[in-house]
UniProtKB/TrEMBL annotation, chain A:
The lineage of its organism: Eukaryota, Metazoa, Ecdysozoa, Arthropoda, Hexapoda. This is GATOR complex protein NPRL3. GO terms for cellular component: GATOR1 complex; lysosome. The keyword Signal applies. As a component of the GATOR1 complex functions as an inhibitor of the amino acid-sensing branch of the TORC1 pathway. It comes from Pieris brassicae.
Automatic annotation (TrEMBL), chain B:
GO terms for cellular component: GATOR1 complex; vacuolar membrane. This is Nitrogen permease regulator 2-like protein. One of its GO terms (molecular function) is GTPase activator activity. GO terms for biological process: cellular response to amino acid starvation; negative regulation of TORC1 signaling; positive regulation of autophagy. Pfam families: NPR2. It comes from Pieris brassicae. Belongs to the NPR2 family. It comes from the Eukaryota.
Length: 729, 398
């Protein structure tokens, strides 16, 4: 796997020269192999392969042998990694054949033995990776190297930790090399003798190995705590991708390699930090999170100095809640909630979903592993006895809202909780994917040049991207066809071209490609005087937060607690709506349900009755006035605008088309259409759930509108791009 | 320079060669640059800091070395010649290419190596290099390097002639190996066929080329051209590697497609719209409307086949060629194919039954219907009928 490190090195360079102090893993066989080669040559019957004299000697092309680094001696590596002072404290990257070395050489003052004369020493912790590892992997390793350097600098300053450890390592090296010399001396004598008989040499070699003291690195690993930490770092990187090491029992170093960490839950899923950044920048308040691990376990794993905001968020967690709800309940700003989400996703603790709700339409994700003998089948059977994963997936093969699956399947009246748990499980494994319905206003002439802020720019933007993609394909072809290559002139600051990003969204995080600042894991604390350890008492939170587990009472309680909010809002909502339009269609709740029933055939609806039954919370009826920062998101018209003014948003051609539609005779319908159109909801970018969320309209209202104006409104179903980013295809 | 610019580190794009220099180990002065094009791109200070990666120790001779520092990437292939005639009994040199730090340089590695080997053989034969460096007049070398840089940057290939020897350099894009080609997949040209130079390809490829039209699948091409199917697969895979063709799913009226988030680009980008209209038209004189095309794409979703869609929308009345519509959508990523996978589920009860009817095939969930049809030479409906009889088979659509 190219994500895994091949090796970790620790090199120092000071006035006494450079030295490779420690490496892991180290192999003891190397020497023996070399020896055997030497003996092989002594064999009188061996044919010396005559090299083709006309050819230049073949060069070495690979330095990886059976997944391990080969062909480098320690001395050679130490000279390579002991960089000149000019290159210190910046990225060090060296590629030799198919191995890439990356590190952050750190220059730090240290105390020499003779009291206070401070000298500078260079340390470099280098990781060896496969050269094919992507740039973002390399960057993460660089970051880790930098952090290790910082931690060591701090510990050196605090209690000369580095000096002590280096002393231990150097001593071990000297000790072993002294022993080695003795033995080598013996060996040389024996080799003299061995020339006479082949059999005796092999015996001698055996003896030599037996009497050989342990490898210097073995000795170091026993004695030095720093070496042990490095070993831990290497092994945790190879196993989970999440590193939690306490250096010198003082500095806690937490690091996560997302490319690897996401594979704990989903084999073969590689999530790059850049993807996460992009996903977070596209987050909207109606999105929710789905934890990949048990919330209690997660709380227990958070170090003591973890952000209290994060703890609060996890305590309120439920996959049924939108981020906005979570933010309100955890008393956070929405931006904070987004950032914490980014954090959780980065550390492979959560994924972004649309909150579970019965109106959701799920299909099997294109990359889902449906092999009969995949381990998921057994896991599923263990988790949900009596159910078969493949049969379950085949039930999701046709898109249908969740309540439909709930009715059709063998789910009893109280099966809702179980179904929710099941869907959550499937979503965690990325087996299911949600489809949303998007609406596009069918204008007589495309693309529209109106809508002030962006369409013009967008067209251009897309064209640029398009052009680029063609350019790159030209390049690939020109090698066959001798076309002209347009050499891209580099580095003029230009905006990142990003076709998927919706420009007119208010972006929370001004992210650029290279900055993961919001996903920075817990930083090394330098001032804390207490030892870090996980205190479970502090994190114990009342009666299991995992609502999905089907604690109906609790769900009920929760529902009650927020009930007042909802009912208020509903009233507000209906009154407001009656201001605007649709006075006659929706006078009471019953009406609404009836109209819902009518749309069951379409396969998308939100049935509020069933919803309470299944103890799902609607993420869609939440409105603004509870949190102050949230107000921005729910844009209400200050006063009901007049039909005339709203109709201005249509071009004359569009108005002509609209006039032919019978539904346009109803001013209320037309008003709603114009209103939504004006706000840009019919550009295929916001799905129905978002429109409902933002504009406080019910699904049935929307569905009716879509039906009435189906000549001009085109719907299409596809996945939410923000959520789909985290899927492996 | 990072951050907002289009060319940040790790963008994966290729960049031009910024500089080429030859560096050698001077018997008294140590490592130094003999010749550089353009002059002073790599300053003395920078060179000194990196020199021990450029003239490295013995073990690293003849390895491709790439070192990234101070905003540039230096590629080299250090070489040593042992001979008594040189001072210190050896001659070390390294011809290095310098690129921007953001650029991808893997494709240049073979080039550096080949050029170095060329210089090496000239040095061995006529002391071409050492003579120039001793005399301090490196005009010839300078000219050579200038030519390499210009030609590679502009044409990606270069022919060098020094004296009586000639060498050819060309940049070959390094791609990962394409996945094995399956019989039911359909190759499609990514470029117009006119721009395709047939002479560059082998005979078998030339034989199958006329049949690559975006609708024939691999097995059909094999039977049409009377070429062994494994050869066709190999040829197509080769074409995929060079980016000449791509593979799309076979067109069937019973196939299901689903719109992707990219579909909304059809509403924004005039260029894409124009292409789509021209491509999907039944006849070039009567072009379909973009809104109709969009409506067709929007109608593609789980559970509705192309047949249903055609019945509903009547594409022939809208001047739309539905085959081309689907092809365009798949190529541009506006839609994606939704495959149907039969899976045999083993229950306790069924296992008993299947014991005495072992002839029934089991399906492991890795092979989709298209592939099965192609393997068995059956139509989808026939195959489905067969599967319906077996109650253990469930269908997963994804």
């Amino acid at each position: 796997m190219e994500v895994n490190p091949l090796n970790i090195f620790f090199v120092k360079s000071d006035s006494k020269g450079d030295r490779l102090l420690f490496r892991y893993p180290y192999t003891t066989e190397n020497k023996d192999e070399n020896k055997q080669k030497n003996y092989g040559r002594l064999n009188p019957y061996a044919i010396n392969s005559t090299e083709d004299l006309l050819q230049n000697p073949q060069s070495q092309t690979s330095n990886i042998c059976k997944g391990e680094l080969s062909g480098f001696t320690d001395e050679m590596l130490s000279t390579l990694f002991a960089v000149k002072a000019e290159l210190c404290n910046r990225k060090f990257e060296l590629k030799v054949n198919d191995v890439r070395f990356v590190g952050h050489p750190t220059l730090l003052p240290y105390r020499t033995n003779k009291d206070d004369t401070a000298a500078m020493i260079l340390i470099n912790i280098v990781f060896a990776l496969q050269a094919s590892a992507s740039h973002s992997i390399v960057k993460c390793y660089y970051d880790l190297s930098k952090r290790l350097g910082k931690a060591l600098t701090h510990e050196e300053k605090r209690c000369s930790y580095l000096t002590e450890e280096m002393k231990i390592m150097l001593e071990a090296h000297d000790q072993v090399s002294a022993l080695d010399q003795e033995i080598n001396g013996d060996n040389e004598d024996e080799e003299e003798n061995s020339r006479h008989s082949v059999s005796s040499t092999t015996q001698n070699v055996d003896n030599g190995i037996d009497s050989d003291p342990k490898n210097a690195f073995d000795l170091i690993l026993q004695k030095s705590s720093l070496a042990k930490s490095m070993k831990d770092v290497f092994e945790e990187l190879s196993n989970t991708g999440i590193v939690q090491v306490t250096i010198n029992k003082w500095v806690l170093l937490s690091f996560c390699l997302p490319h690897k960490a996401h594979q704990i839950h989903n084999r073969g899923l590689i999530v790059e930090p850049e993807t996460i950044d992009k996903c977070i920048s596209m987050l909207r308040p109606y999105h929710g999170i789905l934890l990949m691990v048990d919330p209690n376990a997660l709380l227990a794993s958070i170090p003591l100095d973890g952000s209290p905001a994060l703890l609060r968020l996890i305590k309120c967690y439920s996959p049924l809640k939108s981020l906005q709800t979570l933010a309100i309940e955890a008393d956070l700003t929405l931006t904070q909630a987004f950032q914490l989400t980014g954090h959780l996703v980065y550390w492979a603790k959560a994924t972004v979903i649309f909150p579970l709700c019965e109106g959701n339409v799920y299909v099997v994700s294109p990359a889902a592993n449906v092999h009969v003998h995949s381990p998921l089948v057994d896991e599923f059977a263990k988790e949900f006895p009596g159910l078969c994963l493949l049969q379950m997936l085949s039930e999701f093969s046709l898109p249908a809202p969740l309540w439909y699956v709930c009715r059709s399947g063998a789910w009893g009246a109280r099966g809702g909780g179980r179904l929710a748990r099941l869907v959550a499980w499937l979503l965690q494994r990325r087996l299911l994917m949600q489809l949303h319905t998007y609406v596009q206003f069918n204008s007589p002439h495309w693309p529209r040049q109106r809508h002030s802020d962006s369409p013009q720019a967008e067209g251009k933007e897309y064209f640029c991207e398009k052009h680029d993609s063609y350019l790159s394909s030209n390049i690939s072809f020109s090698s066959l066809n001798q076309l002209q290559l347009n050499v891209p002139e580099p580095v003029e600051p230009r905006e990142v071209i990003n076709c998927e990003s919706n420009r007119h969204y208010p972006t929370q995080n001004n992210l650029n490609q290279t900055d993961f600042s919001h996903t920075q894991p817990i930083v090394i604390e330098s001032d804390t005087k207490y030892k870090f350890e996980v205190d479970s008492a502090n994190h114990s939170f009342d009666e299991g937060a995992d609502v999905v587990d089907g604690d109906l009472d609790k769900g009920q309680k929760k529902a009650n607690s927020v009930d007042s909010g909802i009912s208020n809002n509903e009233k507000k909502l209906t009154s407001r709506l009656s201001d605007v339009s649709l006075k006659d269609t929706h006078s009471s709740d019953e009406d609404r349900f009836e109209s819902d029933e009518r749309y069951f055939k379409n396969g998308v609806s939100l049935n509020l009755k069933l919803q309470s039954e299944m103890s799902f919370q609607s993420p869609t009826v939440w409105t603004a006035p509870l949190g102050c920062d949230v107000v921005d998101y729910c844009r209400f018209p200050p006063e009901p605008p007049t039909t005339e003014s709203l109709l201005d948003t249509f071009t004359p051609e569009e108005r002509a088309v609209l006039a032919n539609i019978p539904a346009a005779d109803n001013p209320d319908d037309l008003l709603l259409l114009a209103q939504l159109h004006k706000k840009g909801y019919f550009r295929g970018e916001q799905h129905l759930e978002e429109i409902m969320f933002m504009e406080n309209v019910t699904r049935s209202q929307l569905m009716q509108l879509l039906d009435k104006f189906k000549e001009v409104l085109i719907t299409f179903e596809t996945e939410d791009p923000a959520v789909a980013l985290l899927y492996p295809y | 320079m990072e951050g907002n610019s289009k060319f940040y580190e790790g963008c994966g794009q290729e960049g031009p060669i910024r500089c080429i220099f030859l560096c050698e180990f001077h018997p008294t002065a140590g490592p130094r640059i003999t010749c550089q094009v353009p002059e002073n791109y790599i300053s003395k200070e920078i060179f000194d800091t990196v020199s021990h990666y450029i003239i490295p120790k013995v073990q690293l001779q003849r390895c491709t070395l790439t070192v990234t520092l101070l905003g540039s990437k230096i590629l080299g292939f250090p070489v040593r010649i042992d001979n008594k005639k040189y001072a210190r009994n050896a001659y070390y040199f390294n011809l290095c290419f310098v690129c921007d730090a953001w650029a991808r340089t893997v494709h240049l590695e073979p080039l550096v190596k080949k050029l170095t080997e060329y210089l090496l053989s000239m040095e061995l034969e006529t002391e071409w290099l050492s003579k120039q460096s001793l005399s301090g007049d490196a005009k010839e070398l300078n000219g050579l390097m200038r030519q390499v840089m210009q030609d590679i940057n502009s044409r990606r290939m270069c022919t060098l002639t020094v004296g009586t020897t000639t060498t050819h350099l060309t940049v070959v894009r390094v791609n990962t190996d394409p996945a094995p080609v399956k019989d039911h997949q359909v190759p499609v040209f990514l470029y117009s066929r006119q721009s395709f130079v047939a002479d560059q390809w082998d005979l078998t490829t030339n034989q199958i080329l006329p049949h690559i039209d975006g609708f024939n699948h691999v097995a059909k091409i094999a039977s049409l051209t009377d070429v062994e199917i494994s050869l066709v697969r190999a040829c197509v895979q080769n074409l995929v590697y060079y980016g000449v063709v791509t593979l799309v799913p076979i067109f069937q009226y019973c196939a299901v497609y689903s719109a992707t988030p990219k579909l909304r680009q059809l509403t924004r980008c005039p260029g894409l719209q124009r292409q789509c209209v021209e491509f999907c038209a039944r006849s070039p004189r009567h072009l379909p409307k973009v809104s109709d095309l969009f409506r067709m794409y929007a109608g593609m979703t789980y559970g509705s086949t192309i047949r249903d869609l055609c019945r509903r929308m009547k594409p022939q009345d809208l001047a739309i060629n539905e085959r081309k519509l689907v092809l365009f959508g798949v190529l541009e990523g506006l839609i994606r194919r939704v495959y149907k996978f039969p899976v045999t589920v083993h229950n306790e009860t069924s296992s008993v039954r299947s014991c005495h009817s072992a002839c029934i095939r089991t399906y492991n969930g890795l092979i989709c219907m298209d592939e099965l049809c192609c393997q068995n030479g059956m139509s989808v409906s026939l195959l489905e009928e067969q599967m319906e009889k077996d109650s253990d088979v469930v269908f997963i659509v994804k």
